[in-house]
# Entry
Amino acid sequence: MRPAEPAASLTTPPTRRPRGRRRIARRATPYLLIAPTIATLLLVLGYPLFDMVVLSFQDMTRKELFAGTSPPWAGVDQYRVVLSDHFFWVVVARTVAFAVVCAALTMLCGLGFALLLREVSPWVRGVMIGVLVAVWAMPFMVAASVFRWLSDADYGVINWLLGRFTGSDFQGHNWFANPWEGFAVIVAVVVWGAIPFVAITLHAALTQVPAELEEAARVDGARGVTLFRHVTFPMIRPLFVVVAALSTIWDFGAFSQIWLMRGGQPERDYYLLGVYSFIESFAVNRYSAGAAIAVVTVLLLLVGSAVYLRQILRTGEIE
Amino acid sequence: MTSGLRGLVAVVSTLVVLASVSGCSGGGGAAKGSGKLTVWLTVDAQESWPDLVRSVNARFEQAHPGTDVTVEYQQWTSKNLKLDAALAGHNVPDVVEMGNSETVNYIVNNAFAPVDPARFDHAGEWLGALREPCEYNGKVYCVPYYVGARVGISRTDLLQRVGVTKAPTTYPELIAGLDALKAKFGTEDRAFSALYMPGRYWYAALAFVKDAGGEIAVKKDGRWQSTLSGPRSVQGLQAWKDLIDAYYVGDRAKDNSDEPAVVGQGKVGIFYGNTWEADAATDSKSGGNPELKGRFASFAFPGPSGGPLPPFLGGSELAVPVKSKKQDLAQDWIRLFTDRTSQERLIKANTLPNNTAQLADVDADGVNGPAAKAATRGWVTPQAPGWAAVEKANILQEMLEDIATGKHSVKDATKAADGRIDAVINKN
Amino acid sequence: MSIDSRRRRRRRRADAVGLAAAAVMAFPVYWMVLTAFRPASRILHVPPRFWPGPFTLDNFRRAIGSDTFWANARSSVVVGVGTVLISLVVGTLAAFAVARFAFAGRRALILVLLAVQTIPLIALVIPVYLLLNDLALTDTLTGVILTYLAFALPFTVWMLRGFIVAIPPELEEAAMVDGCGRLGAFRRVTLPLLAPGLIATSIFGLVQAWNEYVLAYVLLSGNDKRTLPVWLVSFQTGFGTDYGGLMAGATLTALPVVVAFLLVQRRIAAGLATGAVRG
# Structure
């Protein structure tokens, strides 16, 4: 993790180059290089995002949407209504808990896989990577319908297995009647789908840890957990934090899994911020309230991801 | 390495060009606007009467040379999101299919153009359940397409084995039949349901509300008010809950969307559904079992009140978006698609026609006979501007699930639902 | 000797745990493939059958035989490949700038790239639709590619930046001293070294673009322009879900990505290893 300082060395102009126009050209180069990216982001994300923020200060109904007329200004009314609703805060707390639990489990399992990948024989590694890749490639909606079916009350494999191994009767047991159990299934889908990315990325990082380093530590008597905690983990820590932060962010915005697992009709017990915003916008047609919820979601995420940004800044690499 | 790299760069740039070119040709920007009529139907037409769609398109293109019809099939669950986006833009379909409980909100928000009923066959005899959702301020904004009425469907072979040879006509007869089924097959197989009635099946549950003389919502002084916690509504829902408790052993938290597949597994004695679901239960394409062919019969489901259970008339309408640039052509396509001949084809597909005149043509002894009879007692959801939101926010489904699973009493669940419905039912 | 045998035991134990973990992970995939080959009447069954029984290709026949399968597959390929290639080209430029130049606004750019990933895509459906509508790009694959680019680019730039940083700038400088321009140096020195990174990054982008559903559904209305995930939903009809067809279709949809992934697997591991640690 040597702090890279390539920028400095390249921007010091080689002395034989003439100054003047070329220097301006060189000054302009980075901006030219980033221009296409910036343009795309501004157009396809920036503009709609701006739209969304404006929308959250208006009161848009289908009438204005269809006619293309501009909706009446509502000031902070939407926010006042949303933020003063007890249910909204329940959803916020639920979303935070969901994201943290999912991300923690994902990182734990992903790290476990990555560590295992180092230990196993090559052919087992091949099998494991093949499985990870197949899981990764599975479309969301298919994964959701498979899991929905596995957890089906009447035809599900899970109930059958539980009945088989615990001896008690699970036939007809509905996993979604109790939100705690329902979320257990949903967390399982999310974590299952997210493990491959984390496992493969961390595995790649682990292969970079010099073998001599661990060997030396072993000679010094470090074993197992101690070895991992004091030698191996510090090496992959920066990446680990970044991946963990990304996972949390993605899980915070979870929508498809819940939407699909509840057959497009989630109960209020299953609302997370993404689902709540979507229902307000597109089911109840309170587009502005939906937009306000989305804006609050983004703000919460930005606050939360400050940790992640700080870590990245701290590694010093973007200096 | 360098030459390999150059090759790579060449391949990359070619592919980029190809991708953007094919992307553009995929756009077909030029084709739009000229001679193209875009029709959005739901997947039902694709599944059940694709030949009708083809023949109507052929007839239309003959009558209007130079205009091609493109039919795009939509899913019920996600159709409106897509429609909202399209209606907000300029690139709108010329004809859209809407559920009869979805139209009101679109009409009051000026999404659809008025149509001239005189152009359509049997316009004077359109079913009320389909006509009313199209009317607003004295104008007609959509055209009835077809309707379905739910009936009881039984496994005749199973009923015969418990000694029941004729379809139940009264509620006590129905209960007796269910008891017999439960006593024989329910004890043999704990997964056997004498009656299939999942908890979120709101079309069924609300039929019991109607049967007890209750209402979902009523209009008072120009404002809609939910009345699910009224004494009659509660009585109806209690009867529905008692049926579930007594005869249904499956998952109470799901809806009826996989009904044919479940029935196809052979562990259901009687279910309440559309007549085509009996066919679907024997079709492996929808998860059914072909071996069950010929073992189903339909009957008018008796209600606790003594009469037949009033069925929800779920149907479809066809509307022309106000932004369509070919409204006249669009109406003409709808005219052909809903004319007498087309409706005959729908009757053949075990669907009910859009008018009372042809309802009489439905074979009274056929599988759809009881449905045609029940249709005259049918009901529709409240014609309130916010009704679609009530459906889409799953208020009814959640209330029923709470009742069915015993999480809340009927009284508490309906009270909570009334509050949530009142909050949205009057909003555009 | 004893150390050796202890190692062997340790490895055997690891193998067993690894295989068990893989089996648990693989089960849903196995279930999907199993169902895809099962006759429809045997699919919903209690108790579940875990081993292949009667075998049928009917589900695949029905999936491939559906009217729009090939057209939808083509759309998916165009969108997937288009998104990946364009984001690689555009992303490499930006990543190069971020990794190699010091310029005002660089830090801000990086923060934006990271922050952008927090935006919930679902909230932007209608604004994005209206925007593409103004550009006359709804119902075009170009529009979908453009939208996906916005979501793929930040990640691409971020990943590639890590890879480029890992390449010693001295190499480029040496090439420049040898008379190459900066562009020449980039092409001859940096790009070849970057190849594993490009491949690794492209796979991430490909998986995302290949499996995205909501935007594709809303933006594309023509039946034959739809991408495969949208097509898959058509197995859920008003009659119930055709699980056999759905799972067969899903298997077909997932297959290209799995194959692509396995083909370049080694490169990915190598690429990630160099790029990732500095992520």
Notes: The two ends of chain A are 14 Å apart (CA to CA). Chain A has two domains: 1-56, 76-314. Residues 1-56 of chain A form one domain. Chain A has 15 helices and no strands.
